Each structure stands twice: as C-alpha cells, then as structure tokens.
Amino acid sequence: MTSCNDSSSSKRRRLAPHGAAESWASLHLDLLEPIAWKVLAGDLRDYVRFRAVCAHWNSIAVRPHGRGLVDPRFHPRCWMLFPEGHGLYPGHPSLGGYVRFLNLSTGAFVRVHLPLFDDHTLLNSTDGILLLLRHHDTAIRLLNPFTGDIADLPPALPLLQQTKPQNSRYHYMTKDRKRTVLEDFLRVVSAAVTVSAAGAITVMLGLDQNYCVAYATAGDEGWSLSYCWKVPPDLRSRTVSFQGKLYAMAFDPADKNDYVCHIDSPQLSAEGCHMVSQPRPRKIVKCPLFADMCRVYLAQCGSELVLTGFSDTEYEHPVVYKLSDLIKGRVAPTTNMEEHAIFIGARCLCISLSVKWLPSVSSNSIVCRHRSTKQIESRINPLTGLAARLVPSRVEQYDLGSGTWSPALDEDIFSLYTTQMSPYTLAHHVFTCCYISYW
C-alpha cells in the first residue's frame, strides 16, 4: 500500500512540471503584460530572456528593437561598458569587434558584438546609453548596445568654433589633428537624454571646460549653446546626468554660497520640430559642504541623487547627503546607504553590493584615494636627523556607519607620478570606470 502511494506520488511529481509549463505558456494577456513590464523595470536583459521562454510570450511582450532609445523603459540603466585595461580600448583589433558590459547591481558580464567601434570613440554613457563620436564626420550618436538602436545628432566639430570663435587655428589643422583636439575637448562631457511624447530625442551636453551646455534634437543640422555659468569659478563640480536633467554645483557671488543646480532639457514646440526655450540652471538647494575647501561630487545612487565630499580639510571624514533630504530641509549626512558603495575618482560611480559580487569592497562605504596629513612615515637622515614625509595616497574604503578606513585595493594603480598601470583585479577594473583615460 505504501509502495502504491509512493508510485502515485512520484507520477504526480513527474507530471506536474509539464502541466505547469502549459499553464504558464497560455498565461492570459491581462496577466502577461504586467509581468513583462515588471521584469523590464528590473533589467532589460531579463526582459529579453522573458520573451525567449516561449513563442506565446515572445509574440505578446513588446519587441525591444526599435524602442531602445525612444522608450526610456528599454534603456539598460544598470549596465556600463567595462574598461578592459592593458591598452584594449573599444575597437582594438585584439577584441574582434566585441566589448563587455558590467551590471553594476549584480556583477554579471555580457559580451556584445559592436564592430562600429572601428570608426567611433566612446565619450560617455547615460542610463546605459552610449554617447559616441563618429570619426569621419564627427557626428555625435546615441547607441543602445543591447537593441542596436542608434540616433544621429549633429557633428561636434563646429562646437570648437562656437565655443572659441577667437581661435582660428582649427581651420589649418589636419583632419586627424582636429579629431584629436575634439576628443580632448569632449573628454569630460556629460549628457542628458529626453524623449518627447512625439518620440523626438533631445540631448544636452554639459561642456564643463567651457561652462556651457550644448543641445540638439536628433535630425537637427547643428548644436545650440546656452552659457549657463558667468565666470569659471561659478562651476564647482562636474556636471552629471540624472532623470533627463543635468545637475551641478555652482557658486552664487550674490550671497557667496554654493548651490546644487539643475538644468532642464529645452522645451520643444507641440509639433516637436523646434526649441521654444533654452536650458538654464535653476538653484535647488544650498550645499552643506564648502566647495572651495574640498572637491564636491554629485552621483546617482540607486534612485537617488547624492552629494558627497569631505567635511574637513584633512580629508579624513567623507560624508554623503541625499539631495531629497536637503530639499526637505534635513541638513544631516546619511550614515546608511544600505547595499550601495560609491567609488570616487575623476567622477563618481555607485554600485550595488546586495549580491556580494565584489568581496573586497563593503556596502555602505566610499572608495577613494585616501591621504591624510596623519599618515606619515619617518626615517633617519644621517645629516639632518629624523625626517617625516606624507605617505602616498592609497585607494581605501570609508565605512559610513563606523567612520573607519580600511584597504580597498592591494595596490594603487592610479599614481600621478608613475606610468599608468593596467588593472588586474575586478575591483581595479571597477575603479577605472571613474577615469575616462582607461576607456
């Protein structure tokens, strides 16, 4: 009797998966669509796998191709192009037209064939969308690396003449020399992308070296300029992109305070064919840090924009403020970023460590080059006696909860006084994402 029951139970266990598979495959449209959109909200690659489960799901769920730029839901936000190091820039012959992308939330890798890097240079990325410079005509282009969708924007070379009209030397340069100068000009560019209801793609470029913003819509013949900052000291931080806007720290000479400002995308006409307003900076909230005392950074951390820097001149105590808290009047640094860690270099990068994919780095921490005036080494000089000097800065992590420093990388590959070294651990590679020279 027991044997018979066991056999029946075993058969039910064997039959259940097939029946379950049939019920999932025939899932009703009213249930399937919300599930598909929820999967997409997590990760575009998961959505692609979702559509591949069966022919029914593939036919019902919206196809990503053709919507990778015009529909922000299909932007691969968690993904970033992975700097290979060792001189293997995107488009290097040894890579065979492939580049790798890193998921900043899970640590997953994906290898994508993008042969267009033979004729393109990567300038930056925003929400996983790549900002590219095409070599032969200097056109700025947007690329969704997972759907292949591309938007063409005006050539960037005229921006050199527009921002520096008094400099006539560009007219006498060779084509290759112009491209080199242009790439250097765009090296610290940031980009914000917005899509109108009519599907028009507008891009704002934060040209921090010239204290202005260039903007254009896909299909325009040229870029327009808006000079946002009156004098060079006005801009206190690198411009960053967040939710289709540009954010920066700016100095107001009227009250001699620093403010977090945002720049809205220019407004299009109802037809979406021409601009009806220029992007201008608007003050949001006063900065609690003194930007003239230390470097201040803005960074996207999950769904938040945060402000980070040091609260002391000895660079011992980094702090993080949530912009949403400052707007509400809560002027107190946060000590809990949950599973996030912020890497600070030439720019900021926030990663999620909920899956513990980067063991050498702790969550709720700031990773940066750390050199305190307290860090000294002593040695005996036979002529002058005891001498002390600052120890070179090291890449360390600061725990926001305990207020303590600990090693993050086993060797500093970012020395200003030696030849640039290549990364050789995953933590090194992630940190190089903060330095455009490694791209």
UniProtKB/TrEMBL annotation:
Listed transmembrane segments: 185-207
Top-level taxon: Eukaryota
Protein's name according to its UniProt entry: KIB1-4 beta-propeller domain-containing protein
Keyword Magnesium: no
Keywords: Membrane, Transmembrane, Transmembrane helix
Domain annotation KIB1-4 beta-propeller: ranges: 101-366
UniProt xrefs under InterPro entries: KIB1-4_b-propeller
Transmembrane helix keyword on record: yes
Coiled-coil ranges per UniProt: none
